[in-house]
């Protein structure tokens, strides 16, 4: 059920960003995959920021691979793919706690919100960099002339 809801959320977000029809399902699939990775890791580790980082990393790898396959920019898949990971309720909880005067709780939730947002950005960036590095090394290795002795 979580996969389906994450898929629908990412699919709808892709529609809002006016992504081509041929890429809508793939963008929704990216969101579903990233949410499943997050959920599985969160259940195993009980660490929100770590789980978000690895889910964003998976989203980034998927986006880069689909960008090559579908011949379109990677952000077409990565932006809708991170929608399920965005810490909206955590940010809301932080602001609400500030208004209610629960400052220690607000500080904890604020740090979690900032950490989660940073984990999303770093996960996507690391995946993109790693994918491009491996791709360039692979291309360089293929073009290297063979020496016959």
Automatic annotation (TrEMBL):
It is found in: Cell membrane. The keyword Cell inner membrane applies. Belongs to the ThrE exporter (TC 2.A.79) family. GO terms for cellular component: plasma membrane. Residues 2-129 form the Threonine/Serine exporter ThrE domain. This is Uncharacterized membrane protein YjjB, DUF3815 family. The chain crosses the membrane at residues 24-42, 48-67, 74-94, 114-135. It is a multi-pass membrane protein. One of its GO terms (biological process) is succinate transport. Keywords: Cell inner membrane, Cell membrane, Membrane, Transmembrane, Transmembrane helix. Its main location: membrane.
